[in-house]
Amino acid sequence: MHVFPDGQVAGFRLRPQRDQDDMPFLVSLMSSAREAERAFFPGDASHWRMLMDQQARAQTHHYRAAYPGASMDILEHDGQGAGRLCLHQRNDAILVLDIVIIPGLRGRGHGGAILRAVMDAAAGRGQAVRLHVIGHNPARRLYERLGFRTVGDDGLRLAMEWRALPH
């Protein structure tokens, strides 16, 4: 079941990720989301790109294997790739596996709008929204502003959850 069956969310068009065709975009997207880590990488740019390629492929493989039936979508804006949204429906929750926006659209409220749409969908179904975030990731502040609370910590990643307030 797709969270957004009409293929639209917060002004973005959703289209299913095509693993091979979309891999160059996904590698670029992953690299842009991890730019702060790039400063600590000792290799040259080609080695970084190779690492990002391996990690983007591994991430896609992991999501497909660990979350069968998850929606793995490319966000499009004005006909161009603008990000990725991966969601997995469970009976009690919608899991946000990945949400990332291209650098040129970051900081404009798009991520918050997408998450609010996921939260609205979950609330309408009586579900929670769950996600994981690396503790130092700036997105953590967004999640906290939206009402997510930390429910677990493995030393690297925080497990966060949002639930609608009862009426």
From TrEMBL:
SUPFAM superfamilies the record matches: Acyl-CoA N-acyltransferases (Nat) (SSF55729)
PROSITE patterns on file: GNAT (PS51186)
Alphabetized Gene3D superfamilies for the sequence: 3.40.630.30
Superkingdom in the source lineage: Bacteria
GO molecular function: acyltransferase activity, transferring groups other than amino-acyl groups
Keyword Transferase appears in the UniProt entry: yes
UniProt-listed InterPro entries: Acyl_CoA_acyltransferase, GNAT_dom, YpeA/RimI_acetyltransf
Pfam families: Acetyltransf_1
Ranges for domain N-acetyltransferase: 35-167
Source species of the chain: Caenispirillum salinarum AK4
Lineage: Bacteria, Pseudomonadati, Pseudomonadota, Alphaproteobacteria, Rhodospirillales
UniProt name for this protein: Acetyltransferase, GNAT family
UniProt keyword annotations, A-Z: Acyltransferase, Transferase
